[in-house]
Amino acid sequence: MTRRLMLLDTASLYFRAYFGVPESVRAPDGTPVNAVRGLLDFIARLVQDHRPDDLVACMDEDWRPQWRVDLIPSYKAHRVAEEVAGGTDEEEVPDTLSPQVPVIEQVLDAVGIARVGAPGYEADDVIGTLTARAAGPVDVVTGDRDLYQLVDDARGVRVLYPVKGVGTLQMVDEAVLREKYGVDGPGYADLALLRGDPSDGLPGVPGVGEKTAAKLLAAYGDLAGILAAVADPASKLTPAQRRRLDEARPYLAVAPKVVRVASDVALPPFDAALPAGPRDAHALNALAERWGLGGSLQRLLSALPGEE
What we know:
Blueprint: E1 5-9, H1 10-20, H2 34-50, E2 54-58, H3 66-71, E3 80-82, E4 90-91, H4 100-111, E5 114-116, H5 123-133, E6 138-141, E7 157-164, E8 168-172, H6 174-181, H7 185-195, H8 210-220, H9 223-231, H10 239-247, H11 249-259, H12 281-291, H13 294-303
Parallel strand pairs: 1-2, 1-6, 2-5, 6-7
Antiparallel strand pairs: 3-4, 7-8
Helix pairs in contact: 1-2, 2-4, 2-13, 4-12, 7-8, 7-11, 8-9, 9-10
């Protein structure tokens, strides 16, 4: 039987939960747990609505990998809260979110949902690697459009993108990408690096916005085709486009490696199967009491296959 895999871009989802659930949702000691409870409710809905056989919470072991920064120094630079010499820079995170992240990790572990990361890589790279390995259909759940590059109808890979909070999802397949951006999954990475992305500190090509990038890709196929057109005096590029793309060659030489998610990351061993019930009921009960997880945790446990 072909198994359906669901991959969670965990940080992207708990950020959304944090901003989507009021901070008045607190533990018995008054500590905010809005991100914890919001994420648990979101996972419960996902499991209930989409019935994955396997579920992996993909983690950022390194949210700003040095190898990406070496290629494009501005990569996520505006999000750095504190530089750490010889280590991982600290990301700017709301004060009341940071303490909730270890709780999220402990709860996922006690429930038995696989949590996977890799040193030197972002969650996106873990998702890219697990998608490449998958033998069956894959649902990627993320609030990050960068992962649209993985969409592949032939392989059954789609993105579930939260449109409002975490309650409403848009299912993104190749038809949606073509209608909105004029590209397929792999073409989205080329589109993103051409137009740039201020949220990730990617400069893009000056003067090339989303519509121009889509037109160039429609005319010349991919980034390699566009650069070939720059070198071809007979191509129909405007003089301004030719000049801007030519001047951007140093950026365009390194941007693909930065923008495209890795697909061959070495990952630790893990069991992706969605648990039938909690892996460590004793630890989970203690966490539920300590943090006041109440109905959110119960809804997740009720959604598990063994709890029906």
